[in-house]
Design a protein that fits this description.
- The protein is an all-alpha fold.
- Helix content is 70%, strand content 0%.
- It is built from 16 helices and no strands.
- It has helices spanning 5-24, 29-60, 64-68, 82-87, 91-121, 130-139, 147-156, 174-185, 189-197, 202-213, 215-231, 234-239, 249-258, 263-266, 272-280, 284-316.
- Helix 2 crosses helix 16, helix 5 crosses helix 8 (174-185) and helix 11 (215-231) packs antiparallel against helix 16 (284-316).
- It is flat.
- The chain starts with a helix and ends in a 5-residue tail after the last helix.
């Protein structure tokens, strides 16, 4: 079917617009050079960040003799996964993994709920002495009692050598409360007022309006809390002196990195499977690499799912002071 006069005019106008648009936004040689340099720098920086994890991984799946001699640098050789299988024969590693998972999930969940609730409360003008309580929370960011007074405090509270010493001290996080408070203040007040007119109380407003709208900032502080709990090991060293069954995975890693010669004592006793597992981990270097990879991998897998909230949440939560 032949084109109408109007269609021909429209097609001609589109071609003219595309040509003009292309000429306006055509990149200059200086822009091309800048983009090449910019992308090259970021690509190099990305490789520098990724390479340590890649190096760690290829050394854990390569032949142990080659790893012991330092011959694995850029690609794996003699690929095998027996090192990871051998870790299953270490008695306390699975228990420490469970302790770390439990404290990370429970501690992060309680911290996020407490930060959201307290952050919401300090935005309410009708809160009794609101300014005082908010400043009281902020002051705790700048003053610390130190290790010994903190240990004595935990001991007097009966928290030492208990699982709850991992959870309770980290529930109230002043920095996260500030982020949540400033984020909530960016939410239009009219949303709360409309709910209050319909008869909703403060906690119903918080549960049905504030909480869903705070998903980006809550995901952001959840990242902070999860990474902090997962990587923490000093509290395990200080407070678990008589409860080795409550050692965290990072504490176990700390022990292995400092004394890989004692690995045989951590293997299942009296069985040929333990001896075979110990033989498969021929050097302390392989032990360190393998346990380090097992320790780092879970949190690396979780982070990408929350990363999309991170930038928007941290920026919106930091707009107001």
């Amino acid at each position: 079917m032949a084109k109408t006069a109007q269609e021909k005019l429209d097609a001609k106008a589109e071609k003219k617009y595309a040509k003009t648009h292309k000429s306006i936004y055509r990149m200059k040689p200086g822009d091309v050079v800048f983009n090449i340099i910019n992308y090259s720098i970021f690509a190099a920086f990305t490789l520098l960040c990724i390479f340590p994890f890649y190096y760690l991984f290829i050394n854990t799946i390569s032949d142990n003799d080659l790893v012991s001699k330092g011959l694995i640098n850029f690609y794996p050789r003699g690929i095998q996964f027996s090192n990871y299988i051998s870790l299953l024969s270490i008695n306390d590693l699975g228990r420490s993994f469970l302790v770390t998972i439990s404290r990370t999930v429970l501690g992060t969940a309680l911290m996020v709920m407490a930060s959201a609730l307290v952050g919401y409360l300090v935005t309410k003008q009708e809160l009794w002495h609101r300014s005082f309580w908010y400043r009281f929370i902020v002051v705790t960011m700048y003053f610390n009692a130190g290790i010994i007074p903190t240990f004595m405090n935990m001991q007097m509270l009966g928290l030492t050598n208990t699982f709850w010493v991992y959870i309770i001290p980290g529930i109230v996080a002043p920095y996260n409360i500030i982020l949540v408070k400033t984020y909530i203040e960016s939410i239009p007040r009219e949303l709360e007022e409309s709910a209050e007119i319909d008869g909703a109380g403060p906690f119903k407003v918080f549960r049905q309006i504030i909480w869903p709208l705070c998903t980006p900032i809550l995901a952001t502080i959840a990242i902070f809390g999860a990474v902090g709990h997962w990587n923490s090991f000093m509290d395990s060293i200080l407070y678990m002196q008589s409860r080795p069954e409550l050692y965290t995975l990072q504490h176990r890693l700390y022990v292995y990195l400092n004394s890989t010669s004692n690995l045989s004592a951590l293997m299942q006793s009296g069985g040929s499977s333990a001896e075979n597992a110990l033989q498969s981990l021929l050097s302390g270097k392989v032990v360190k690499y393998t346990i380090s990879m097992v320790t780092v991998l879970p949190i690396l897998l979780v982070y990408p799912f929350l990363q999309r909230y991170f930038e928007g949440g941290i920026m919106l939560g930091a707009v107001k002071g």
